[in-house]
Amino acid sequence: MPDVGRRHGEPHRDKSSVESPCQLSAAPRPSHVSLGVERVVFAPIGYRAASHRSSVYNQHLYRSTPHAHQRVSTVNASRLTMPFMFLTSRQIHWVSAFLATIISAALSSTPGLAADELRPNILWIMSEDNSKHYLRHFDRHGAVAPNIEALAQHGVTFDRAFSCAPVCSVARTTLITSCYAPRIGTQFHRRSKMATMSNGVKMFPAYLRAAGYYTTNNSKEDYNAQKSGDVWNESSRNASWKNRPSDATPFFHVLTSTLSHESSLHFNATAMEQPTVTEPASVQLQPYFPDTKIFRYTRARYHDRIMAIDQVVGKVVAELQKAGELENTFIFYFGDHGGVLPRSKGYAYESGLHVPLVVRVPDKHKDMVDRKLASRTKGFVEFVDFGPTVLSLAGVDPPDGIDGDAFLGKDIDVAEVDARNEAFGYADRFDEKYDLVRTLRQGNFKYIRNFEPFLPDGLQNNYRYKMLAFEQWRQLHEAGELNEIQSQFFQKKPVEALYDLDFDPHEVHNLAGDPQYAEQRNAMRQRLTDRLKSMPDLSFIPEAVLFSEAMPNPVAFGQSNKSAIAGLIDTVNLALLPFAEAESKLKDALESDDPWTRYWAVVACSSFGKQASSLLPLVEKRLVDLEPLVVMRAVEFVAITSEEDPRPSLYRSFQRATNEPEALRMLNTAVLLNDFCDGRLPIDVEQIDFLFKPKPRSELIRRIDYLAR
Description:
Helices cover 35% and strands 11% of the residues. By secondary structure, the protein is an alpha/beta fold. It is globular.
């Protein structure tokens, strides 16, 4: 196995003196050769040639982008940067806008290309933190939203749209890069270090801007990857499509509304005296919630927030109408991920991933969408697809090296889009809370692989528990007043789960152990495993190592360690076997020379729980492992399977942590011991000692503050 990160207790290596895996065998990078106005792209190994997903999709383990047919070529913006060297930022802004106008006019005057046919405006309206379940247009128990419904009447409703990640920064980075976050190193919320974009790939608005579009964002970015300077003409609270240099300049504008953000539900008991527009008695609570006054008020209040979002949509439409741009503008309305009541935002259930999506089709560009107005499709679309779709509508070629496929545009096969039936989801660190989860949905079956099932969903996350509903839910659990379904949130999760969403839309009845569904489970298990290995999924290397080794080029790091990552996935997947079959393989893995094989072997043991008690002597040897993160994993196993006290080993490990992600990972274990071991193993914060000073207001401080309460 290649040397990935530290081995045998070595400190994190200085990249200036020791070659990293990224430097040893980086993946080939795309080369762009400009020939006149055309662009020739030599794709790196691993990216397929042009073809539609309908014919070859199932032959490939993760999605690549099919090239479109003849389109307007992009412009090499790098050639325009030299004159900007001595200009102020404000001057650069206006010169860029002027050049965009010239480029737009040149493209519009191309023989045979009419500007109003190939240069539509595109506008995104994103509401924060809401899944499709809170709008009547998608769910009969949702809020009334007449303006959003009016968009749908003049466009297309996508009933199966997915955010890939259930939290802001990861979902938004997936959107803006058109890449799956675990492949490019942007899967952690909040980021410990910015990931560098793979060479040859930019955030997609940069391609629009190079092609003459005026690109603006108002105003949330929250990206986990480094943004190049050519992505937005303006990104601020003042950014607007109205600021474009001329009416002839096409625009791409993003508006994010915070009115539905999670913080809107951080009210106190006094605030509950204020009545809601939605009657609390009228709302339909999810079956995993206790039926209490607080939960009913919380859901009713959130319906009111959705109605406020609808007013925002109406205002945007009115402004476009007044400016004469409504019938020249594609309007996308969607949620940036699921939420925001408990067990949604941050969790890879449908409540966290399944988002509303409506696209209004303008009269001047009906020919670009081969669908009837007011139609609906059940074809699956994911956030990686949104960027390629905008490029398709703008007539701009997508770059090589992204994961998404367009679902609207002149060259898009509607039947192929309608046939798409697979969505990939991921959840990793969510603020200070770690939990590695991967999901695959095919049709109405949902498969979830919980790689750390001994970590309950209800593990403390400070920001979540600011919500009264979260806090009351935990109090009722501790008082023993919840039924079996309502208690699941605070219990060990299954190693794998399979849900039939036709009959179980809330994912509370696990079919993974039902022999009747064994074939479906095994097929989806294998498909997900193949996709993780093919990417490869960087989360099987601890964040502490990625922080030190991978961020200068996460994609190259992943490719150079692809076989090692596949081996680690095989190790942790021993937890999917009957224990009698896995036991001897786990023994070998626990004695491996590779620290991360030992790490995942202990995780697999903990996944078995007390079934694996026979391995306790072997795992106890790992309490003095040279790799402190392996020690941390051994502490978890000892706490789960025995009455022994492993806290001294954890306290010693804190003193060996060399960066914040490593220490934060250890504190996740500390909270598990403190809160979910029947009170046996409370954590003494006085014994938490790091070699470095944590950053103020960091996730580390959040964890320590919680443990010290």
